[in-house]
Amino acid sequence: MFTGIVEEKGQVKSINKNKSSLTLIIEATTVTSDVSIGDSIAVNGVCLTVTSFGNNWFSVDVIPETFRGSSLATIKIGSQINLERAMSASGRFGGHFVSGHVDTVGEIKRTWTEDNALYIYIKLSDEGLHYVTLKGSICVDGTSLTVFGVKEDGFIISLIPETQRATVLGEKRQGDIVNVEYDMLAKYMERLISAKKENKSTRDESITMEKLQQYGF
């Protein structure tokens, strides 16, 4: 489990690419300070397992499912990437619940600035827009962000100067592909409601939109 608060920007030092899988060696300092084999690290928002490590580097494997469902297939040697270790139970929770299981990829349609803010309009490639809510949470390339606009084909986020500096999103341009993970609470809620409807339950404890609103959801 992650928070979407990026700890550092790493750099891809080596790529061993097969037909539909990758082995990456990533240079980093913060996330390798206490790393162990088997640890989970979010790489541009994708939860990957450390398979080996050394002085300021670690390696991970990207299996075909992840290769096809994320933007990792497009990275190159020298690419900078967002990195975050799995959240600690003793630390502050500054973002939102992020699983590291990417739902889809989006394409940057437009970027613009206003004063000190960088706005990014991301076009979605699937039918998950109903999970995106104005002022709600969303994870883009492993970064926990707030939705500032919802369009027919995507959404708009805004980056403060610190996020522009500390993550790779500040360097993204029109046409770039990014990993998107929807708010997991929204996905769980949808599944609960749809499951009850499928079962056609008539018991009083059935979950309906009316009951959720009645209890403050």
TrEMBL record:
Pathway: Cofactor biosynthesis; riboflavin biosynthesis; riboflavin from 2-hydroxy-3-oxobutyl phosphate and 5-amino-6-(D-ribitylamino)uracil: step 2/2
UniProt keywords, alphabetically: Repeat, Riboflavin biosynthesis, Transferase
SUPFAM superfamilies xrefs: Riboflavin synthase domain-like
GO molecular function: riboflavin synthase activity
Residue ranges the record marks as coiled coil: none
Catalytic activity, EC: 2.5.1.9
Swiss-Prot/TrEMBL catalytic activity: 2 6,7-dimethyl-8-(1-D-ribityl)lumazine + H(+) = 5-amino-6-(D-ribitylamino)uracil + riboflavin
The Lumazine-binding repeat ranges on this chain: 1-96, 97-193
Lumazine-binding domain ranges (all copies): 1-96, 97-193
Gene3D superfamilies: 2.40.30.20
Subunit structure: Homotrimer.
Protein name, entry field: Riboflavin synthase
Gene: ribE
